[in-house]
Amino acid sequence: MTRPIVTVTRRLPQAVEAELREEFDVRLNTDDLPLDAAALRRALESSDALLCTVTDRLDRATLGPPPVRARIAANFGVGFNHIDLSAARDLGLVVTNTPGVLTEATAELAMTLMLMVARRVTEGERELRAGKWTGWRPTHLMGRGLGGRILGIVGMGRIGRSVARRAANGLGMRIEYFTRTPTQEDDALGRRCESLAELLANADVVSLHAPATSETKRMIGAKELRQMKRDAVLINTARGDLVDEEALADALLEGALHGAGLDVYEHEPSVHPRLLRLDNVVLLPHLGSATEDARIGMGRRAIENLRAFFAGKEPPDRVPGA
Questions:
Q1: Whether the Cβ atoms of residue 199 and residue 206 lie closer than 8 Å to each other
Q2: CB within 10 Å: which end of the chain, N or C, has fewer?
Q3: What CA–CA distance (Å, rounded) separates 20 from 197?
Q4: C-beta separation of 200 from 228 below 8 A
């Protein structure tokens, strides 16, 4: 029996690649470099399935006109804003994602960034490594404690709720949130704000957990940054599109914010050059789900979707509208 051909666009954990080989005819990207539009199109034309990632821009130009051989794009990740769902639908291409398995890892990283920014951790490490530390002194690199402060969460999905629990139970923070689809579970975690402006005005730390859509693109811009407290902290582990990086650089340079912690960027892997020069921003290279458990879990979830699809069943994580 001929096995479905699956093109994997980036290297995955060894355990995941081994499991893929057991069930499919797998074609790996051994160089582990992002595929350009032409390479992605060739993969769609020569494979039965594409196991893709956030680095693969599957826009209408790349997906192009039908027909193609591929019938499913199993995305390795939760977000799918890099895939044009309308074009995929026109092509007859089913799109799936991997929700749930990276929740805890991403929530942990959001908490890490909060503490790093509040306590000025990277400033201290750079000073020490540069040989500039002259010893302990009472006023040296004084940061801020988080206990009792207000954490404002934008977007109360799985990750937002996990961050709320960790911040409240672990750090003693008070939780406020803004979301378009509130639930009773959310109300049990904190106080719901009626508007984003209300949350920004109240919060000592603002943590973004909204999806990337046309409505949320640059939802944090110059206007919104002015609405925040001058000593507030902004955290983004969601999507780079949510923040206007030019406006954020202005706010940080002017001292309008205490600091920021970013794991995602508008034009990855490029980072705004002004942000790179600032001490009061912590910059990480998209590490949100970068734990062995999470990445293996993501791969296995993608395999489950492929397995179901080629068995003639509905994939468990089919993206609505695709």
A1: yes
A2: N
A3: 47
A4: yes
